[in-house]
């Protein structure tokens, strides 16, 4: 689905070969994006008079470190993601717009997400017009993005084997406290199974930035992630 | 691959369960004895008791009543932790159903399947888990033996030795010389000696800034080398000298009476000296007759000794393949062993072994780095799957977060070990 959308709406400027496959493209239709952005504008402003409101203003968002807007009271989730190295490049913004909670657990942004890749691309093309730094070169970061695998409904529909999940969870609890305590490593209990799966899949796909979690999630199969989600859903 | 491994495990576990079943029925609850209450043994005992819900009789043999973790002991030397914050009691394990016996295991009869204790007791087992950690190889640093450990502490087992070493560093004369004799591979906690050098430098920089540090290292290269070298240059310029094997560090001798270190014939007077000798599996493994060379070969699928399938061995004492000797590794291996033992004794489900390890090191205030990897069991060994390491030149924010994460890990692993 997404590949088709890309082919139709995005001009493919460059396709690098080799290990990290990167493509840079026109992001989307900024004028159409301006219309879609109206649903965001209750909370987020852009342009010369933009101020922080319910959400931070979005001038210069491309290439900006998460939680870097001085004076805005960010959620703990965004602050933690920033500490893990989250920088708002195109791929992360796209993932965030698709499903904010998938990228950042505990974000306050109360938005269901834009399911259509084209809608996200158009909004991001619009926002790109308010980001001066780095200069507006479509081939360069932050507009370049690696090819990604889409998280399919089939993956989310897997019913996890909670008993297997309990065994697998023993790898998590070497660092994360099973009773939900927090001393510098986040609590992972009392999450919904879906939030858990989405978060782990985002690490597995290296959308979320933390290197340990990318490594731990990277070798788990979809079934194993579902098993963990099922188990963590059973503990108090 | 995965399917094959599962099949293999399924067959192995099934066979073991069939063999032990009659005995189990004849004698009531199956008995597991765990020797050693550190990251491997405490975790294994706790998981066995917790997950078997009382179906397995679990006894832990551990001589000390208060366990001082070796991990984070360098942070005590650097002044980032109080010694008491590294101490843990076994009350949580007792509460989760483990029979905790404070005694030394001094003998193992593999035919009778019993462990004898220094206090005279004899513990029968259906499965034995050995997690004794390390002992030192006699004569590996000429002039040093365990009788010299008060003059030249090893401080490579947590507790009193760590306190002694710190006191000796604090008592050094102004502008004095601290020396460390680093161990040859393989040894407990690969970045440990170098984190210790960092923490000693941190301590001296604040209290005795003209003091010098001499690192005598028989190895060509070491864990996180680029990260430590960068950090030493940044935080402690001119303070630390490392002598490698090309300058005679493999030919070193100490004299704990005169407080000298002789490197390739050249005598150095030192004011404090940390000797970390070559290492081997805890002695009980030798007594059990399951070592080959200095270590115990084990199967990665179950952590079973290659020489006795009734004995599982964890952590530093093992020769298992690619995992470093660390508390994190021992904790990870303990869960695989606990699952395998439970499967064999109660017929519970057995899953493919998965292992992981991450080692954090502190170089200076808020300057933390880490290295880690994931592992799986093959028939030959525990094999590395994937890994990462902190990079040189990382921004200070990320280094601070890495340090904070290590504090979180300490809280996590100790609650995983002790409940």
TrEMBL record, chain B:
<keyword id="KW-0285">Flavoprotein</keyword>
<feature type="domain" description="Sulfide dehydrogenase [flavocytochrome c] flavoprotein chain central">
    <location>
        <begin position="162"/>
        <end position="277"/>
    </location>
</feature>
<dbReference type="InterPro" id="IPR037092">
    <property type="entry name" value="FlavoCytC_S_DH_flav-bd_sf"/>
</dbReference>
<protein>
    <submittedName>
        <fullName>NAD(P)/FAD-dependent oxidoreductase</fullName>
    </submittedName>
</protein>
<dbReference type="InterPro" id="IPR023753">
    <property type="entry name" value="FAD/NAD-binding_dom"/>
</dbReference>
<dbReference type="InterPro" id="IPR036188">
    <property type="entry name" value="FAD/NAD-bd_sf"/>
</dbReference>
<feature type="domain" description="Flavocytochrome c sulphide dehydrogenase flavin-binding">
    <location>
        <begin position="353"/>
        <end position="418"/>
    </location>
</feature>
<feature type="domain" description="FAD/NAD(P)-binding">
    <location>
        <begin position="31"/>
        <end position="144"/>
    </location>
</feature>
<dbReference type="InterPro" id="IPR052541">
    <property type="entry name" value="SQRD"/>
</dbReference>
<dbReference type="InterPro" id="IPR015323">
    <property type="entry name" value="FlavoCytC_S_DH_flav-bd"/>
</dbReference>
<keyword id="KW-0274">FAD</keyword>
<dbReference type="InterPro" id="IPR006311">
    <property type="entry name" value="TAT_signal"/>
</dbReference>
<dbReference type="InterPro" id="IPR016156">
    <property type="entry name" value="FAD/NAD-linked_Rdtase_dimer_sf"/>
</dbReference>
<dbReference type="Pfam" id="PF21706">
    <property type="entry name" value="FCSD_central"/>
</dbReference>
<dbReference type="Pfam" id="PF07992">
    <property type="entry name" value="Pyr_redox_2"/>
</dbReference>
<dbReference type="Pfam" id="PF09242">
    <property type="entry name" value="FCSD-flav_bind"/>
</dbReference>
<dbReference type="InterPro" id="IPR049386">
    <property type="entry name" value="FCSD_central"/>
</dbReference>
